[in-house]
Amino acid sequence: MEQTVLLTKPRVFLIVLFLFFTPKVLAQKYRFERGEVSFVSNAELEQIKAKTGQIQGLLDPVTNQFAFTVDIRSFKGFNSELQREHFNEKYMESERYPKAKFSGKIIETIDFSENKIHEVRAKGELDIHGQKQTRIIKTKFILENGKARIESTFLVPLSDHNITIPSIVKQKIASEIEVSIWGTLSLQ
User: Fold this and answer.
1) 60 burial class (0-12, 13-18, 19+ CB within 10 angstroms)?
2) Could you tell me which residues come within 8 angstroms of residue 158 by beta carbon, excluding any fewer than 6 positions away?
3) Within 10 A of 68 (CB to CB), how many other CB atoms are there?
4) Is residue 120 part of a domain?
5) Does residue 5 lie within any of the structural domains?
6) Could you tell me which residue ranges the Lipid/polyisoprenoid-binding YceI-like domain spans (predicted)?
7) How far apart are CA 17 and CA 31, in angstroms?
8) Domain extent for 151
9) CB neighbours of 148 closer than 8 A, spacing ≥ 6?
């Protein structure tokens, strides 16, 4: 019995030593350094544009899992301050639903050691206005010298996220909104 205890102590020591010296490698994730989310509503009578740089995100290169959030109140642009106010209060209900989120997994395998452009599909839950929808979003993923850039444009139907437009303004707000995202991520 004493011999068994002596044999397991070196193994435990090696495991602890391994974990002590490798957590940084195991825990390295790509985090958003900077980026932008913008949207365009191309309606019959009016075009509305807004954007924000307040995006946070994380990508695990080991599992290909990701999570991104955007502060809804941070969008700026619009055609007037009143339009921005209506966006937050009447349509997005930003007090109740302050964040838009997208989390899931990149479907394709990416060799993160290779500097190149990857055309990938991100599959996950898009949560806007408290309504989650499973989406597959095509994304350009560019790896270069330990950094990553993402670029994507996709459509978001308002009805998918329970956002209703009163009939009086239906010609001024599109039923599908074009969303674009770009960002730079670095290992941390």
Assistant:
1) middle
2) 164, 165, 173, 175, 176, 177
3) 24
4) yes
5) no
6) 43-181
7) 27
8) 28-187
9) 30, 59, 141, 142, 184, 185, 186
Are 87 and 76 in contact by the 8 Å Cβ rule? The answer is no
What is the three-state SS of 131-160? Answer: EEEEEEEEEEEEEECCEEEEEEEEEEEHHH
The size of the chain, in residues, is 188
CATH of the domain at 117: 2.40.128.110
- Residue 112, token pair as written in the block: 């993160």
Give pLDDT tens digits along the chain (188 positions).
545 444 455 454 444 434 444 444 455 899 988 999 999 999 999 999 999 999 999 999 999 999 999 999 999 999 999 999 999 999 999 999 999 999 999 999 988 888 999 999 999 999 999 999 999 999 999 999 888 999 999 999 999 999 998 888 889 999 999 999 999 999 88
Kindly list the distances between the CA atom of residue 8 and the CA atoms of 5, 11, 22, 56, 136, in Å, as whole numbers in the listed order: 5, 5, 21, 44, 48
